Each structure stands twice: as C-alpha cells, then as structure tokens.
Amino acid sequence: MFLADGTHVFHESDLLPLVADDSATARHSAAADRAKSTTTKWGLVAAAGFVTAFGLFASSVDDQDGSPGWKKGLMLTGAIVGVIGGVMAWKSQYTMWDETNAAFHSYNADLGTRLNVCADGLNVVPCEGGGTSRVPTDDEPPRR
C-alpha cells in the first residue's frame, strides 16, 4: 500500500497509530497478527514431524535385519504430523493474507472517520462543512 506522500506501507500494523483502536483496520490487523503466530506454530510442528521422520529413517538405513516396528511407527507418525502441520500452516497463511488485505482496504474509511472528514464530490471536507456523505466503511458498499 502507498500513502499519498509516496510512503510504502508493508505491514498493516504500521497503520494502527492513524486509526481508532476499535476500528476495522485495528481488528483486521490484530487478526492478521494472530494468524501469523498460528502459521509459525504450525510450521514448527510440521518441521518437527518431518525432522523426526527423516532422523528415524536415516538411523535405520544401516539396520541389517530391518527396522523395528516402533521405529517404522514413529517414522509414519512423524510424516503424518509433518503433513498435518504443513496443511494447517498453509491454511493459516491464507487467513493472514486475507486479514492483512482487509486491514489495508478498511484504512481509508477508518482514517476518514477518525479525522471526521466527508466526501463532497471529489473534495474531502470536514463533515460539518457541508459534505454530502461520510467515507464508506468496509461494511458498507461505496455510494455511486
């Protein structure tokens, strides 16, 4: 997202000082942060599962009489945990992207509300200054 002065905003949390604490931008930013944390946790679970499965596989390569049943069971369990963790991390990543996108999309309306500005044609004016409509929020469609 680029601001009017050309500043490139990478993280939705950088917008928080400019909007109200209970705004849609703040809610979406908090949800994106929670999803990012969830993505990291599931990614670590996936990595631990795959590392465990690979470690057990590598340690059983030299077994002449075959791997004991418990090793095979742990390898399979590690692989399953790795796959489940990877799928959950992937799902959480999409949630994070959706919430980040929603935070960026709700920013203009939330800033307009905080600054108490309205649209008067193509002009932005104080709401008490004769503006015909408030900047739409993310929950309402834009007026045409």
Describe the structure.
The protein has 144 residues and is mainly alpha-helical. Helices cover 58% and strands 7% of the residues. It has two helices and three strands. The protein has helices spanning 24-59, 69-115; strands at residues 117-120, 123-126, 133-134. α1 packs antiparallel against α2. The longest helix is centred in the middle third of the chain and has 47 residues, at 69-115.
Main beta sheet strand tally, sense and closure: 3 strands, antiparallel
Low-confidence regions:
none
Element pattern in H and E = HHEEE
Number of strands: 3
Relative strand content: 5-15%
For the structure shown, list the relevant keywords.
144 residues; mainly alpha; three-stranded antiparallel sheet; 2 helices; 58% helix
Q: How would you concisely characterize the structure shown here?
A:
The chain is mainly alpha-helical. It is built from two helices and three strands, in the order ααβββ.
Secondary structure elements and their pairing?
Elements: H1 24-59, H2 69-115, E1 117-120, E2 123-126, E3 133-134
